[in-house]
Every structure is written in structure tokens, then in C-alpha cells.
Amino acid sequence: MNVTGPGGGDELNRLLQSTGRNDQAAFAELYKRTSPKLFGVCLRMLRDRGAAEEVLQETYTTVWRRAATFDATRASAITWLVALSRNKAIDRLRQHREELLDDPQNLDAAVDQQPTPAADAESSQEYRRLQQCLDELEPQQQSSVREAFFSGATYNELAARCKVPLGTMKSWIRRSLIQLRQCLDQ
Amino acid sequence: MNTPADDGNDNLRYAEYVLGVLDADARAAVAHEVATTSEAAVAVALWQRRLTPLADPIDEVAPAPYVWARIRDSLQLDAPDRLQPRKGLWDNLQLWRRLGIGAGALAAALLVAVFVPRPALTPTVANAGYMASTLQQDNGSTGWTATMDLRNARMIVVPGTPVAFAQGRAPELWLIPAGANPIAVGMIAPDKPTTLALDAALLARLGPTAALAVSVEPVGGSPTGQPTGPVIAKGAIGAAPDAGAGKVSVTTPKRADRTSA
Fold first, then answer.
1. CA B177, CA A111: separation in Å to the nearest integer?
2. A17 lies in the same domain as A84
3. How far apart are the C-alpha atoms of A180 and B14, rounded to whole Å?
């Protein structure tokens, strides 16, 4: 499922809005359609099935309680949902930082997120646009942004992984964010 | 070009929040702003729109059905227990039963059916809908084999080694969540397969830290709601081996707290 692309986007918006009116059937349908995407995101960030299941559960209980605040003029339903699940996953990473750092497997830098050609072909217009803008960044900056997005790591952790000073990492990411905004908002 | 105000620290803080690079304190500060000021909420929503498409290529992975059961349970919803009723293995089981195949053969066939990986056409749904448990007797022989069909909220319990019961006594099956009291699942037959319905409360507690046990009770079931007779078989619950296997590699949670009844 594309996060921002076509493919039932309007219907997901309607399901999320109905969920906001306490419609349980709409909520069940929304879960059925979107939980595989959100679970994939949680697994990708947490790299632990049990933790991902807990964060997924937390995400959807929050969806049920907060769906009424969803504003379709600001974001599509799937963007809202993925952003919510990422926030929950990042909060979890911050809470469990020490124990995760104890496990070397969790430190595996997962920079390899270049999409395969097939994934690229299926991806949304928004994704292709973002990809074009990312391609304009220096390679190191681009991979820092990607790793930050997929790992939920702090500036400190990213600097340690890339073996650069904290100030360098901050300036790479901040410059990238400013450049991305300029490119995307054109 | 952006005005200096647009590039101010505040707007970048929102971007950093969405990207996920802020530490716990800075995150909490931005989250508080988002909850209390509409400027922050709008700025964060804009950055989410810009950056969230990065998640497009992440593979979908179907979560295990008990996650939905837990969500329903914690929100106390009445929505359906199961989302995707599906046929297949279960109907085959019913067919085997009608054909009168012996319990041992059925148990063997069942295990094969559950554990043989399916063609990897839809890897993300694999066998995630089933869990299994072998309930062993103290002498090591298999008392019963339980297979839980989570999507359809039912369990089939197949006897392995016959067990003799005194007049007026019968086996009762219990679910034992880690660190909690046993929950009655139902009476089972000592000599033939039994199908039991799993309600939402039971479904929510099935998982790799829970165990199943059989105790000897009066024919009508334990009068107290807790086991009153000796436990004659027990076993841990496991997912089918490739349950939910997707393209994403994940670490298996380390569970040191597996309950033994």
C-alpha cells in the first residue's frame, strides 16, 4: 500500500472519519486494511516482533480514541496512521533505549532502503517526487536522512553509528531537511 | 526561497520531530506543543506529508490475529472477533473426522498440515492464523495435541495416548497465561477429537508465553472455576513455525518466562 498514493485513499479517509464517530465496524475494516502496513513499519523500526505487536496495539487503541481529531485537509488517513505508528515506535525506542543498545542486532544499521525497481514502479507520485529531491542531496546526507527515518535513532546515536561528530550529523540532517522542503514545496 | 522566519529553529524542530531524531525530552516538548497549539500541529502535519512517503517501500506484514483480539479487548468493543473468516485447513479437519480416521493419524495429519510451509505466494499471511501445543504427560508421552485456529476463534484438541478416567471424572482443558491463574477452556473428550470455541478473552491471552494444561475434574467441569484435580498433561503454546514470516527479518523475542503448569 502506498502511503500517500491512490488506491482507496478516499475510502480510508471515510473509514477513519467514521471511526471518529465511534463506528466499530468501520474501525474493524480500517484495521483490516491498514494494519499490515503499520505492522511492517513497526517491525522495520523496532526489529522485534513482540515489541512491534505491542506498539501496533497501542497505535490502534490511540486511533480509536483520537480518530475524531483526524483532519483530511491536512493529511490522508494513511499518512496520519503511519505517522502515528512511527511516533509510538519512536517513543518506545526512547523508553527502551538501554536494553535495545545491549543487543547488537538492534544496532545493525539498516541503510539499505533503496527501493527495488519493482517497488519503485508501484510507488506513489509523492514517493517518486520525494525520491527525486533526496537524490539531489549529497550521498552521505541522503543516507543519514533515510537511516534516521527508518531507525528512529537520535542525533547522538546516528553520529555514533556514522562515526562523525554530533555537530556534523546535526548539520547534515538540518541542511537536508531545509533542502528537501525547498525542493518539495516548489 | 524561504524567508528567514520559515527557516527558524522552530520549524526545523518540527521537522526533526517528524523525522525522529530528537531525544526523549525534546520530543516530549514538541508533542506538548502539537497538542496545545494549532501552529505546531499544522507545521508537524506538513512535515508528515513531506516525509511519510519514505515509508512507501516498506513491506506489509500481516499481524497475528491475537493483536486485534487484544485491541478489541482493551477497548471493550463489540466488533467481530475475527476479521477474515477463511476456509481451508479447518474444513479438511472436519472432513477427516467424518471419514473416521483414527485420532493418532489425525494428529499426525494435522501437524503435517499445520507445519508444512505453504507455497510462498503470499508470504505475509503464511500460517499466522494457527497456533499449536503438544500437551505431554509426566511420562513424556503426548496426551493431547491442540491446534488453535485464531481467525475462526476455535481450537481442536486431539487425544494422543489414551488416558483412563475413573467413573464420574473427565479431562478439562485450561489456558494458563504467564503469571496468571488458569482460565477454563472447556471439557474435552478422552478418546476422540473435541472442538472448542475460543471467546475474545481467551483469544487475547493466547500467545507464546501462555501454556495449556489438562486436569482431572468432575464430568460437569470444575465446581470452583479453577483446577481441583491433578494436572495430567501440559504444554507450551507455539505459533506455527513460519507464522507471519514476511520479507522483513526480525529477531525472535527472547522469552525467559515461559510458564510451565
1. 39
2. yes
3. 14
Residue A7 sits in the same domain as residue A79: yes
A78-to-A14, A46, A70, B259, B261 alpha-carbon distances in Å: 11, 20, 11, 39, 43
Res. A93: pLDDT tops 90: yes
Range of the domain at A139: 109-186
A147 vs B: CB within 8 A: no
Q: Kindly indicate whether the ipTM for this predicted assembly is greater than 0.90, answering yes or no.
A: no
End-to-end alpha-carbon separation of chain A, Å?
26
**CB contact residues (below 8 A), chain A span 25-84, against chain B:** 25, 27-28, 31-32, 35-37, 39-41, 43-44, 47-53, 56-57, 60-61, 64, 71, 74-75, 79-80, 82-83
- Model confidence at B62: pLDDT above 70: yes
In this prediction, residue B110 carries a pLDDT of 54
Domain count, chain A: 2
pTM: 0.59
In CATH, B65-239 is 2.60.40: yes
Q: Are residues A156 and A92 in the same domain?
A: no
C-alpha span between B72 and A24 (Å, rounded): 10
Interface with chain B: mutation pick from A34, A57, A78, highest number of B CBs within 10 Å: A57
Answer yes or no: do A13 and A60 share one domain.
Answer: yes
Among the candidates A54, A79, A103, a domain finishes at A103
Q: Do B53 and A115 touch (CB under 8 A)?
A: no
